[in-house]
Design brief:
heterodimer; A: 436 residues; Rossmann fold; Neuraminidase; four-stranded antiparallel sheet; 5 helices; B: 150 residues; alpha+beta; 60s Ribosomal Protein L30, Chain: A; 42% helix
């Protein structure tokens, strides 16, 4: 799919700034400023793209539906039905838009456009307006094949969300997780919303704890095909598999960068965390403490690593500064804190905590130990938190309905909802950044 | 072994009573005389752990001593020691805990003179429970080091 860009005319061009290189040109500062965390939903009127001809009308229906469900998934928008008199018969152009009508229904933004066929391809032109000032904030054309209607819609959704929030959106991101649907625990991968499900392993033993590299090129996981748990790394482009040729057990990998994945290995006797290259060779050991050291999760710059350690007798979360070698304890609340996940913004760590009654809940805490926040409660086991690319959502496992299933919620614990309709149990989800 | 003998007796006795009661066979064959049991041969057995613990309990020693005797008896045999956990807690941590359980059992046997290269350890964490159920009875059975002849 190719994106074409139309430039803003005149003085507007001077005001606008390049938010994301090669993506969107708009005056972003203002909209980022008004979309602070915790503010209400964005009131948006989305008009179906204007189309002439039966084929184009079909595309328009599909584009509208995909855009709506995509925007709805983010939990950021309140989608207001378009007022009847919103646009003139010629479709969305600033002269024809009735901003009075939009303001009267409480819309903050209006998005509309047109879809045409060009050389057999789909060409979607979208415009987004701030309804109060009646100014365009985004104007962009998206093209692709007829089979790309979903990704064309999502490219627009991504631009809109990134423009209004200043954060990376979920569109284009992937989820990897474990399911026992086949009778064995295997790794599956799908889009953020469950679309395009693929079974990635066929170990017929146990495949656990999958995680994608930041660029989405490698999938690392733990597999029992050899009779013991070993770290496996698949190059998704070429299909080549590597594993760590060391004795002992390997547990729970986490990527530091596209060039290094950390995992627990026990070939030297005690369980320690090591950095491993995508070809399975060892780079270096990073922990040195008697007892369990487990579940590495890195700061976005790769300089710090959150991990679980039993060095204080019960599992707690620690942060290791890889540059100074200094380790600090992060969690002091509770006696069983595991599964740290460092947010993509770098400011928070999500983790799970088991209470005395066996209930497991998800918490977030700032990396300096402040602002402890409980996100789940009273719903049995809630585990394995993993952040969305923008850090505004968390995917997790919950047994609230009996079997373990995947759920999502926002970063404050709101909007908890089931993610997939899939047989068997699903667990250990990991949310990737946007995969190119 | 002991258990299965007991089970056999338990099944045989009522079966003979039934046969006798129906009277369809006049000449009941006397059972074979039971051989005196040989001195109990050591048998491989599992050991159990407390919650979130990988250290050996007092009651593990007797079984591990037997396992060591079995290993000495069968000097060509190798075993896999599987570490297991109950379903509580999180699965990655249980994977680590299971490995430590297998390791403490192995270490005990090494201290009794069993060659370390004859034993490999693997953790299954909470992935392969022996007993179904979410109660202390099941959990206690699932926190174990399981010895498997290779």
């Amino acid at each position: 799919m190719r994106y074409c860009k139309e430039l803003f005319p005149g003085v507007f061009l001077i005001l606008s700034l390049l938010l994301f290189p090669g993506q969107v040109q708009a005056n972003g500062d203002e909209y980022i400023a008004i979309r602070k965390e915790g503010s209400g939903k964005i009131a948006l009127v989305l008009s179906k793209p204007v189309a002439s001809g039966a084929k184009e009308s079909g595309w328009s229906e599909r584009l509208d539906a995909e855009t709506r469900s995509g925007l709805d998934f983010t939990g950021l928008f309140s989608l207001i039905p378009p007022p009847l008199n919103v646009a003139g018969p010629r479709g969305a152009s600033s002269q024809a838009i009735n901003f009075g009508a939009l303001n009267s229904v409480g819309a903050e933004f209006y998005a509309g456009g047109a879809v045409v066929r060009k050389s057999g391809n789909v060409l979607l032109s979208m415009e987004v307006y701030d309804t109060l000032g009646g100014r365009p904030i985004l104007r962009k054309t998206y093209t692709g094949k007829e089979s790309d209607l979903r990704s064309i819609s999502h490219a627009f959704c991504a631009d809109l969300v990134e423009l209004l929030t200043g954060r990376q959106s979920v569109f284009g991101s992937k989820l990897v997780f474990v399911s026992n649907r086949s009778g064995f625990k295997e790794i599956y991968m799908c889009d953020y919303d469950g679309h395009g499900m693929r079974q990635m392993t066929n170990s017929r033993s146990l495949a656990l704890t999958p995680v994608l590299s930041p660029n989405g090129n490698y999938l690392a996981y733990t597999e029992y095909a050899s009779g013991r748990p070993r770290l496996s790394i698949i190059d998704l482009a070429g299909g080549k598999r590597s594993s760590v040729a060391r004795s002992g057990n390997s547990i729970d990998p986490g990527w530091r960068s596209n060039a290094e994945v950390a995992t627990t290995l026990s070939f030297q006797g005690d369980q320690e965390i090591y950095l491993v290259r995508p070809d399975g060779t060892l780079a270096r050991r990073v922990t040195n403490s008697r007892g369990i050291d487990l579940s590495p999760s890195f700061s976005p710059d790769g300089n710090k690593m959150a991990f679980v350690s039993s060095r204080t007798a019960v599992p707690q979360i620690f942060i290791l500064d890889l540059q100074t070698g200094q380790t600090n304890r992060l969690t002091y609340n509770g006696n069983y804190n595991t599964q740290p996940s460092w947010s993509p913004q770098g400011d928070k760590i999500a983790y799970s905590s088991m209470e005395k009654n066996g209930e497991i809940n998800i918490f977030t805490i700032n990396t300096d130990g402040s602002s402890l926040r409980q996100l789940t409660s009273g719903t049995r086991q809630n585990e394995s938190p993993s952040w969305s690319p923008g850090g505004d959502m968390i995917v997790f496992t919950s047994s609230r309905q009996g079997q373990k299933k995947l759920f999502v919620m926002n970063a404050a614990g709101g909007g908890q909802k089931r993610l997939l309709q899939m047989e068997g149990e699903q667990m250990q989800p990991s949310w990737s950044l946007k995969v190119k | 072994m002991k258990g299965s003998m007991f089970l056999m007796k338990g099944l045989c006795v009522p079966a003979m009573l039934v046969l006798g009661a129906c009277g369809c066979k006049s000449d009941v064959v006397a059972p074979e005389p039971v051989q005196p049991a040989p001195a109990a041969a050591p048998a491989l057995g599992d050991v159990f752990y407390d919650f979130d613990q990988a250290s050996l309990r007092m009651d593990a020693a007797e079984q591990l001593n037997q396992n060591a005797a079995w290993m000495r008896d069968k000097s060509s045999k190798r075993v896999v020691i599987e570490g297991h956990c109950d379903e509580r807690g999180t699965s990655e941590y249980n994977m680590a805990l299971g490995e430590r359980r297998a390791a403490t059992a192995k270490e005990y046997l090494v201290n009794l003179g069993v060659e370390p290269e004859r034993m490999t350890t693997v953790s299954y964490g909470e992935e392969r429970p022996f007993a179904a159920g979410s109660n202390e009875e099941a959990w206690a059975l699932n926190r174990r080091a399981h010895f498997v002849e290779e």
